[in-house]
């Protein structure tokens, strides 16, 4: 599982010209799921994101977590995070999980993050053509791969 976590002042996602979800201060998460991912990856990644200290404290030091800051979260499915660009000019997405595996893990991640944060998590729609907007705060952008957790 790969997540691109961006600290945002605001973020939103529209589908078919209609606003699906919007958040204020918090994180926008692009989430890529591969065939080998499991519930263990979901739980580890959710905890990591909820507790990662990327928000400023009263001294302007990144010392507060998403939980501490009271920020919101927007989760967007993003299979292209698993693109292989080693050969040729057309990326291969063979590592990206098929919907029968990816959708349940995507839903499980949203549910787990909501539990870890103690609040509702906004999201896009799996497989939809989404238009994502954000104001990156910092900018702070962090890439987390559950395969690198040890």
Automatic annotation (TrEMBL):
Its main location: cytoplasm. Its EC number is 3.1.1.96, 3.1.1.-. It is found in: Cytoplasm. It catalyses: glycyl-tRNA(Ala) + H2O = tRNA(Ala) + glycine + H(+); a D-aminoacyl-tRNA + H2O = a tRNA + a D-alpha-amino acid + H(+). The keyword Kinase does not apply. It comes from the Bacteria. It holds the Pfam family Tyr_Deacylase. Keywords: Cytoplasm, Hydrolase, RNA-binding, tRNA-binding. Coiled coil: none annotated. A motif (Gly-cisPro motif, important for rejection of L-amino acids) lies at residues 138-139. Homodimer. HAMAP family: Deacylase_Dtd (MF_00518). An aminoacyl-tRNA editing enzyme that deacylates mischarged D-aminoacyl-tRNAs. Also deacylates mischarged glycyl-tRNA(Ala), protecting cells against glycine mischarging by AlaRS. Acts via tRNA-based rather than protein-based catalysis; rejects L-amino acids rather than detecting D-amino acids in the active site. By recycling D-aminoacyl-tRNA to D-amino acids and free tRNA molecules, this enzyme counteracts the toxicity associated with the formation of D-aminoacyl-tRNA entities in vivo and helps enforce protein L-homochirality. Belongs to the DTD family. This is D-aminoacyl-tRNA deacylase.
């Amino acid at each position: 599982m790969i997540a691109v976590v961006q600290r945002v002042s605001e973020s939103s996602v529209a589908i078919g010209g209609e606003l699906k979800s919007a958040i204020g201060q918090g994180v926008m998460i692009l989430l890529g799921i591969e065939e080998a991912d499991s519930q263990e990856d979901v739980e580890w990644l959710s905890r990591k994101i909820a507790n990662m200290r990327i928000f400023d404290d009263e001294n302007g030091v990144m010392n507060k977590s998403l939980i501490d800051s009271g920020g919101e979260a927007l989760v967007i499915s993003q299979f292209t995070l698993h693109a292989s660009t080693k050969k040729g000019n057309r990326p291969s997405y063979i590592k990206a999980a098929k919907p029968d595996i990816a959708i349940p893990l995507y839903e499980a991640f949203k549910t787990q993050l909501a539990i870890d944060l103690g609040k509702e998590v906004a999201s896009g729609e799996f497989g939809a053509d989404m238009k994502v907007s954000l104001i990156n705060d910092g900018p702070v952008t962090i890439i987390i791969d559950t395969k690198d957790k040890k």
